[in-house]
Amino acid sequence: MTSVAIPAPVKATTTPTSHLAQKAFNAGKLTVFYGVLTVVGLAFIVPYVFAVFGSLKPESSILTTPPWVPPMHPVWSNYPNAFLSDPQVATGFGRYMLNTAIVTVALTVGQVFFSMLGAYGFARLKFPGREGIFWVYLATLMVPNIVTIIPLYTEMHYFHLVNTYWGVFLPYALGTPYTIFLMRQFFKNIPQEVIDAARIDGAGDFGVLTRVVAPLSRPVLITAGLIAFVFSWNNFLWPLVIMGSQSHYLLTNGLANFNAGPGAAGYLNLEMVGAIITLVPMLVLFVVFNRYIVRSIQLTSGK
Asked: What fold is seen in the domain 86-300?
């Protein structure tokens, strides 16, 4: 018998020219990609840089110099002046910041706590109609906030909560659909064995939630707290509707009041100071808790 020689498979070879062309193509794509990101980033950052420049300019030059020109002699006294009461402009950003801090802390703590209770019920408790009730509740996300303004005001007026801190944060402190949805997705990823072990040790539902689920859910709880904090800190329309006196205004309302006050055009530098003051807490929170936000998104997405 004669053996038939089977030819060896021919390996595909890549020429040095095609390899260099591929590397050049990839480098070009990265250059374009990062170039677009740089342009978009600058488009978002430049207005804040202009605000910083404007906050350090005197009243006489705020309208006579272009916004992209930094101040030759920064007026650092603009920042403490914004916290002082001025009958021609507003109560002062010191009072506005205190009001905002009170409302924001109360709203954030309440929203995280009550959302955690609701999310645990939808994720771990079994009762008739659980899924249906959850999806109906989640569907309320599609209802614009402006639609609920008049009913909420009527309700707050009935309970004598108009022009009070309670009236500002109470409608949002009992949980929101998005926050409950976020926590529910996280709670469902906790292994059932861990919860069963806690029940064997004698823990009830509240004990399981506070001793087991909550410590394991730190990323999503921090994320929910940040969402509530940012919402309350930037909230404008509802505090404007529910607060009748200027002494109860929040930062956003006080900042808008700078535009409405007599001689407001002469206080544009203080208005820029107010914008920077309003921005700084958000920036600090994002820098400090950035890793928790990313971690929470990764876990709730199932990746």
From this structure: MetI-like fold (1.10.3720)
